[in-house]
């Protein structure tokens, strides 16, 4: 992987190590050939669930060899590791029967997996979500067929090709002149669940412009500075989260009640106190939101509030 200058490194869902070998997808027989190779490793995806084995060093994906039944399923070529082993995702319906081992979601296990497994899961879940909600041609409504090893859907009626989509979203800390952090709660969230602001990028808009617009719309603040921090895929169902730190000279909040139920400025000491007494919930370990907060805090949340 090429070197980057992201400030936030090792984000939970940005740790993939496979070579995606995009050139292999153009071979219409590649999936069939890989399914005949007992060395190929297959990940079953059932709705949002993934098979996981417990291990003393942390959970690991329960990968398996191909079976004859896989030829009749939707199979996606995810890539190869440095040793040349190929990895496939076998995508099934959420209501299919599940045997052992344990079945968990990417949200539940993503931050505990190793780099290879986290990357495999993130890509597999993103593609499974895309196939599930884009079965038909947006031009004519005919059912499309998977091609290019599961990375394209083609319409047999008009020949149009359709590709997996990724919806960019920005997510940002907002800091005031006293270096306080702005935290907000969405109307649909439970009491005590706070995070930084976020929103989707609109057509014709740069990431930085989206940051400024979202902050202005949601809490009524004008920004003086916006600085890029890092990004990670977020396949829930099909986003990439682009993280920023922003600064404002304003402190008076004007909330959009449709988007924000409540918001507050917190100092570092105040945030730690809220965490320790359980008055506020920290975002999950797989989210870039947590890492953005920790970047401001100056240390991991676990170091100041174990179990948070």
Describe the structure.
The protein has 308 residues and is of the alpha+beta class. The protein folds into two domains: 22-133, Nucleoside Triphosphate Pyrophosphohydrolase (Alpha-Beta Complex), CATH 3.90.79; 167-304, Nucleoside Triphosphate Pyrophosphohydrolase (Alpha-Beta Complex), CATH 3.90.79.10. The protein contains seven helices and 15 strands. It has helices at 30-35, 106-109, 115-133, 207-219, 268-276, 288-297, 301-304; strands spanning 41-46, 49-53, 60-61, 74-80, 86-92, 102-105, 145-147, 152-154, 161-162, 167-175, 181-185, 197-200, 225-234, 239-247, 262-266. The protein is globular.
Summarize the structure in short.
It contains seven helices and 15 strands.
